[in-house]
Amino acid sequence: MTEPKTILLFDSEYIQVVHYEDATSEKYLKSVFIEGETSFNLLFLLSPNINLSASDCGTHFQFQKNQYILHYSSLENKAELWTENEETLQYFQIQVNYQYIFDLIEPHSNSESAEILENMKNNNYIFLHKETPPFMTVEMHMILKEISGYSKKGVMQKLFIEAKIIKLLILIFEQFKEKNVEELGSDNPETIKKFLDENYHKNIKIEEISRIVGINQNMLRKEFKKQYNTTIVDYISELRMLKAKKMIIDSKIMIKEIAIECGYEYVQNFTRAFKKKYGVSPEKLRLG
């Protein structure tokens, strides 16, 4: 039986980042997490049908996969997460101290900053459309992968984590700012993304995705770009590069094999794409 994994990715005076995953065969999987006093909690739900019960408000939520909430807790609070029917329980929690957010936003500097902090304190970043928690964007997924895969420690890690948290907050504020402009009108982008997440390492063609989803190629590109603010080609490339970088750092697999594993038929094309992305060749990255 696989033991639950609680990975503390980062911990400082103001910020804590935890990745939790439980894939045991138990029928009911449960996890308890603590919200610190006067803290903001970003909770990304990475598996389907997760239930949440918060003791501070006596409210029960059920989340779909890839939904998230930004929650403020004035007092230390305990919340329970659980799944049923042997579903995997996986989530990503980022806890940030109130003072850190206050100093970052500087609410006294202008009315927009004051409004953002007030919305955060009033927990207005929980429901987006029709009383439903918002869904993560592609960029949010990428940021979480980057945080999970970052290996440096000390000052470099601190600066990296803080920069990624700021980027996540910007994406959240933008998403909620646009919520009254247009309702999400199609499941197609989510279907496309799921297909790409599962098949990015293969030689995927737009024609194939179009056939599977059942919409024409132009509409497919347009809907994906509209919801995720990136092209299908760029998203595939980003997923491949993230996987390749992790394999180069964490394993001794030959560069040629990594290229094939990440969907590149020719190692030269892989090396060119990798150097363009990271400014260094795969071989030099491995040598440090």
Helix and strand arrangement:
Elements: E1 5-11, E2 15-22, E3 29-35, E4 39-45, E5 50-54, E6 59-63, E7 68-73, E8 77-83, E9 89-97, H1 98-105, H2 111-121, H3 138-149, H4 155-177, H5 188-199, H6 206-213, H7 217-228, H8 232-250, H9 255-261, H10 267-278, H11 282-287
Antiparallel strand pairs: 1-2, 2-9, 3-8, 4-7, 4-9, 5-6, 5-8
Helix pairs in contact: 3-4, 3-8, 5-7
Keywords: DNA-binding, Transcription, Transcription regulation
InterPro entries: Homeodomain-like_sf, HTH_AraC, HTH_AraC-typ_CS, PchR_regulatory_protein, Tscrpt_reg_AraC-type_HTH
Pfam family, one: HTH_18
Percentage beta strand: 15-25%
CATH topology of the largest domain: Jelly Rolls
Biggest pleated-sheet summary: 5 strands, antiparallel
CATH homologous superfamily heading of the largest domain: Jelly Rolls
CA radius of gyration:
20 Å
Q: Largest beta sheet: what is the strand line-up?
A: 1-2-9-4-7
Q: What is the number of domains?
A: 2
Number of alpha- plus pi-helical segments: 11
CATH class value of the largest domain: Mainly Beta
* N-to-C SSE string, H for helix and E for strand: EEEEEEEEEHHHHHHHHHHH
